[in-house]
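Re-running the complex after MR caught last week's input typo. The corrected sequence lines follow. Everything else is unchanged.
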Amino acid sequence: MSVELISYGAFFLTMALTYAIICLGLNVQWGQTGLFNVGIAGFVAIGAYVSALLTTPDTAGRIGGFGLPIVVGWIGGAVITSIVSFLIGALTIRLRADYLAIATFGVAVVVQLCALNLEALTGGPFGIGFIPRPFAELAATPLLFSLANFAVVALLVIALYFVLERLARSPWGRVLRAIREDEPAALALGKSAVGFRLQAFAIGGGIMGLAGAVQAHFIGFIAPDNYVPMLTFQVWAMLIVGGSGNNRGAILGAVLVWAIWAGSAGAVASIFPPGEQARAAALQIVMIGVALCAILLLRPRGILGELSVVSRHLGKLRRGVAAPAPTEEKTENAANT
Amino acid sequence: MQPAASARDKPTASERKPLLRARGLVKAFGGLLAVNDMSISLGQGEMLGLIGPNGAGKTTLFNLLAGSLKPTAGSIDMAGRDLTRAGPERRIASGIGRTFQIPRPFAEMTVLENVLTGAQNQAGERIWMNLLRPGRVAAEERASVEKARSLLDFVTLSRLEGEPARILSGGQRKLLELSRILMADPQVILLDEPAAGVNPTLLELIIDRVLDLNRQGKSILLIEHNMEMVSRLCSRVVVMAGGRHLTEGKPSDVARDKAVIDAYLGGVA
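Corrected-run output:
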């Protein structure tokens, strides 16, 4: 296997894993809690810009540029996005799913317009460049640079996965699912739906912000055009393809859909003449749409559907193998005997 | 089986200490008064029936008592503590648990997880406790699982504990809902039509379990159209019609009451 191929593989997986982080955030909001966030791009953008402002060197004519370490940028991006998500959630979380979708879409549009017009803070349409990249000293050897970045992002995804799995399989995760399934019933059991929904929204938003920060440092440049509704569509497709409600599904879906996206971009470049490539790029969206339709038809719950037993303590406490799924008639009889 | 006799053996309404009390409740939906100046009192350990024709306002009254609706006027208190403006999530902490007319299981969660959701004041429901005090969370969860399993034994759903709740039949869903609220140890249980759509064999099981709960000291308010069930379970029945308190008394007496018969035949608008 050539060095270039390994290098490209590492680059491809690093990008896919940054999307996996966004997907994990969406899984907390939608997969576990049923919060219909259609403004993902906005939350990713906030994390990216906050981290860029914290870590880039001082630049004439632009606010920020604190030159802080990359890790501080990542943490700052996640924390600030989480706080912003909490504040947005405090205003919108009581809305019904479809109205929450409209509200979050509006938030994303506002964030993108702010990024475009607040030139003194965001660099306007030209964005922010020279964002410090992890292992920049290895840039001369692309293979090492790509592998080192891949290792860091992979470790971050693994750590995030374990923390989120722990939470999903805890009583906290159980309450989120109960609220998702039937809010009035959860309320009748004493669960404060607004409080839990707000927590899930803020945590999911914070994770999206972290992903934005990681992506910004990996690419080294950000601009408002990176945070358009297409990003939101891609991430939704990733979660649905992988399996909503399943953290492994979120990661798998991100890698698969990113593979379709990158693969179709390569195909467009090789099949169509240069003059037609801009128009032919729309085929990438068609490819994701087809994949989405195929998954919804063949596996409506995604490739890895949600697991039915969620408490992490039940594995140790199981008192026997559950009976095979009975039919309606059988279950009625079971209770009667 | 002589459950009606056991109910009659209990103290009369006037001898019981009131536990849940609603006074002068009014609920208006626009110009419609669904509940109009309704007062009701449930005594400690009492099993009280609430009957009335369709549209009488029973479920609206239930929703007011359970906190799902806020009253337009009137007050609700539990053991002397005012709950009039408290939301549904605060009612269960005050000792009031409810079931729904159409059961509302968490369909994609397992039967056991459904019951576990009823546990109150769990440290594991706070994010940071799962990360910082996993030992405490695990200990609480072990105790909750043990209790949930004993409740599933009580409602005979044990062997389905690992199955998603969506596969349960209508009657089993009612039993699941009952076990779910029992996880919270409520003093008062509001049962909304537990017999509706349930086959006769399963209905016997539900009646048996409700009687058991009452013997354990739970106070129960029961909405039910099945008069035979009401007669077997309740020593006192309140009749509603047109959103108002029509009459109350022993089941056998109210069944013969002319105003009640008129109401069921459409005599009260």
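None of the earlier attempt is carried over here. DSSP finds eleven helices and ten strands in chain B. The first strand of chain B starts at residue 18 and ends at 29.
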